[in-house]
Specification:
With 519 residues, the chain is of the alpha/beta class. Helices cover 43% and strands 12% of the residues. The radius of gyration is 27 Å and the shape is globular.
Length: 519
């Protein structure tokens, strides 16, 4: 699978969207929506020329280095970045202190172009810093940098393999250096005319260097696995530490081999999508995952786990989830979980903040459990129940939404076959109680009519922090005899958008963005 395919199928499991704009600002103080300061403007001018950048480092305070690196990354000035890395005055360089969070809004949940743009920006940052760091080490520059932290942003597989090759190269050099040292020690006892003292130059200086990263591995190449095994050796001078790991489409065998080499103390997020995992592999998969007690995110979506009719498989999977005390984000979508949600989730020590159960064939009992669970009453901020037939158990859905009302910020009920009366109740009764809701997705519910949507525009506009709502074009747009369907769709969207903008002025808030999709 190509990196571009990975970008298009992103669904927010590994990289959360910011639900609190004020908290987002505190994460990255260098990136706020404000006018640039004189310092920022000066740094942007300095990094345009690498020679000027080099000369400026002799006179500016070290506190300005971060501002210079920030400007160089934002403008893509590779030569200036190389100069800054070569003269970096600290042992650690963290990308998260330089760049804004990967995603800055809930647009990541519905705007594919936005996702691709920001993922590519993150890949550009990690590529530039990783390559520059290695090249500076090979040139033996005077940098003090020993720990490069790229976590929080995706690292392309080609760069992961580039770093892996250098880990293996440095490891081989260490072994060769030992052999040469042993030979020279023995050769000291030979006569001068028979003695040859060999010297060996290593690729990087004699020190320990670590790169912490988020790795996306989607090929059959095992070079990264060999590099991780080598990194576990304390004698290795160049090491990789994955914090987020995406192993989509690699197969069960490679998953187990890879996880054996990962240090459980560092891994916080794991994605195993599209691996055709089924019940029979659980006895092997579960022991491979349970050591990772620091996992906060686990994505098992889009596999073939069918625990509905297999109590043993459900118990095995539940035991694994129970063994992950830090777990906060869980994706079980597109697996058959009907009737087993209580078994799977009741043993979790910490309430989940993120839960995706899309296309899991949920039953009324599953919804009833969720409504009364500690997850709903204490934790859930993001819920996706899309692609489940919920019309027959909407009472439990309503109870669940009542339980999560104080906290839920993302609610997705796409294609849940809800009836018009249920949608009306959702808009009129439930929505006003969801005071923290920022994104609502109820598209592809066939009962959505134009009359209903227009009548609820005021409710949508009045929801305090609602940023975007995703709807389907109503049936009326498709029933025009001899009419232009595309024109009808455009007309409907423009009318509803105008209503939302007009109502936003009335409520003195930002307008709700209307996202439309075909049924």
């Amino acid at each position: 699978m190509s990196d571009s395919t990975f970008l298009s199928m992103y669904k927010a499991s590994l990289y959360p969207v910011p639900l609190d704009p004020e908290k987002q600002d505190s994460i990255c103080p260098h990136h706020r929506n404000k006018l640039p300061s004189l310092l920022d403007l000066a740094c942007e001018k300095i990094v345009l020329d690498s020679g000027v950048t080099l000369r400026s480092l002799d006179v500016v305070p070290v506190s300005v280095y971060y501002n210079l690196m920030l400007a160089a990354l934002a403008l893509g000035r590779d030569r200036a970045i190389e100069v800054l890395v070569s003269r970096w005055p600290w042992r650690v360089l963290s990308l998260a202190r330089l760049a804004p969070p990967l995603f800055g809004s809930v647009r990541a949940l519905y705007d594919e172009a936005y996702v691709k743009e920001h993922m590519r920006r993150g890949i550009k940052f990690t590529t530039c810093l990783a390559h520059t760091f290695v090249e500076c080490l090979k040139k033996r520059t005077a940098t003090k940098l020993q720990y490069l932290d790229l976590t929080g942003y995706p690292t392309a597989e080609v760069i992961v393999n580039y770093l892996s090759s250098h880990v293996l190269l440095v490891s081989n050099e260490i072994h060769q250096k030992k052999i040469i040292s042993m030979y020279n020690e023995v050769a000291q006892h030979l006569p001068d005319n028979q003695r040859n003292n060999y010297e060996f130059d290593t690729t990087i200086p004699d020190n320990t260097y670590i790169v912490s990263l988020d790795a996306c591995i989607q090929s059959q190449d095992m070079e990264f696995c060999r590099a991780l095994k080598t990194s576990s050796d304390n004698a290795c001078q160049f090491r990789l530490q994955p914090q987020r790991l995406d192993l989509s489409c690699v197969g069960m065998a490679r998953i187990c081999v890879m996880l054996e080499q990962v240090n459980p103390q560092h891994l916080s997020a794991l994605c195993l999508k599209f691996n055709a995992l089924h019940n029979d592999v659980l006895p092997v998969l579960v022991p491979a995952i349970t050591p990772f007690t620091r996992l906060t995110c686990l994505d098992l979506g889009c596999n073939d786990l069918r625990v509905t009719l297999c109590a043993e498989a459900a118990a095995t999977l539940a035991g694994m989830l129970k063994s992950l005390p830090a777990l906060e984000r869980l994706d079980l979508s597109n697996n058959a979980m009907r009737g087993r949600i209580e078994v799977l989730l009741s043993g979790l020590q910490r309430p989940l903040k993120f839960l995706r159960l899309c296309a899991c064939l949920l039953s009324p009992d599953d919804l009833a459990y969720l409504a009364d669970s500690h997850h709903a009453n204490e934790g859930l901020e993001e819920i996706d129940l899309s692609e489940n037939g919920l019309s027959s158990c909407y009472g439990s859905v309503s109870q669940l939404l009542t339980a999560v009302a104080p906290r839920v910020a993302v609610l997705e009920l796409e294609n849940c076959r809800l009836l018009e009366t249920q949608l009306e109740e959702l808009f009129e009764t439930t929505l006003p109680t969801l005071q923290s809701l920022r994104y609502l997705n109820v598209c592809r519910n066939k009962a959505l009519s134009g009359t209903l949507l227009m009548s609820q525009a005021a409710t949508l506009a009045a929801t305090p922090v609602l940023t975007a709502v995703k709807l389907s074009y109503p049936l009326e747009c498709y029933l025009l005899e001899g009419g232009d369907v595309d024109a009808a769709m455009d007309r409907f969207q423009s009318v509803v958008s105008a209503m939302l903008h007009s109502l936003a002025q009335k409520f003195d808030k930002l307008p709700v963005e209307l996202v439309m999709e075909c049924s």
